[in-house]
Specification:
mainly alpha; 67% helix; 268 residues; 10 helices
Length: 268
């Protein structure tokens, strides 16, 4: 079985249950996969990528309502929004595997690990919605901000590594402790259970951002690019969002951000 072709097949799946299960199965069976890392793969139906369910309804990010986590309904909306991010993150990792040829085998294995962990996160959050909040994934509108950047960087692996894991996903390192603080203030059993899930997600997302940082640095070195200067160029070129303070400096440094990068981010 070949890993990159299988990643494309799983990316096409529309059922969240099937996609998350398949991503976990791929990681469990990773030892049996070959990797055609030099092959150029052409998807038969590129316009259908990624496979997504009929629900949730997708809106522009400015049209997605936010509600206070002080109410059960508000917490359901919050957990649903995070679950949607994690579902998209499965797609992002699978896309990196099939789309970009010519990378070392470890690149593909790293993103397979990410896909599986994002699938685990999605399932934890979906189970929480069902068991504690009386809702399911798809019950609330969502937006496609993460996938939009995936499309913008489809033909530039350096931009993909710079602007998806180490920009958009790194924002989660900053936001998660603030969300956990609000949930702890609420103090209900479901809110505290959500805090525990977010602990798992935050810990593993540090590793995902670190993978993005590693391969961004590796690609910059291969192409003779200055990582900090080129990152600033890519942010402007692709209109990537700037981080919102306060930054989680400890998590970002653990994920491999250098002091020069932290200084640039804090001044941005």
């Amino acid at each position: 079985m070949e890993l990159r072709q299988r990643a494309l097949e799983v990316l096409h799946l529309t059922s969240p249950e099937e996609k998350s299960s398949a991503a976990l199965d791929m990681q469990a069976q990773s030892a049996i996969f070959s990797i055609a890392n030099q092959a150029t793969i052409t998807p038969p139906h590129a316009h259908t990528l990624p496979g997504r369910p009929a629900r949730p309804e997708l809106l522009h990010h400015t049209a997605v309502a936010r509600r206070s986590p002080a109410t059960a309904g508000g917490r359901a909306v919050l957990i649903h929004a995070i679950a949607h991010i994690e579902f998209n993150a499965i797609n992002l990792a699978l896309d990196a595997i099939w789309r970009f040829a010519g990378m070392p085998d470890q690149f593909y294995r790293d993103w397979l690990r990410v896909a599986a962990e994002e699938a685990k996160h999605f399932r934890l959050l979906r189970d929480h919605l069902r068991q504690h909040l009386g809702h399911d994934y798809g019950d609330f509108p969502a937006h496609q901000g993460l996938w939009s950047m995936c499309e913008k960087t489809a033909h530039d692996i350096v931009a993909r590594m710079a602007l998806v894991p180490r920009t958009l996903e790194a924002r989660g390192l900053d936001a998660t402790p603030l969300i956990q603080h609000k949930l702890r203030q609420v103090g209900t059993p479901d809110a505290l259970a959500a805090v525990d899930i977010l602990d798992i997600i935050l810990r593993e997302e540090v590793g995902h951002v670190a993978i993005g940082n590693h391969w961004y640095g590796w690609l910059c070195a291969r192409q003779g690019l200055d990582p900090v200067a080129h990152y600033a160029t890519l942010v402007e070129r692709h209109e990537a969002p700037r981080p919102k303070p306060p930054l989680n400096g400890a998590a970002r440094r653990a994920a491999g951000f250098t002091e020069a990068e932290m200084l640039w981010l804090q001044q941005a």
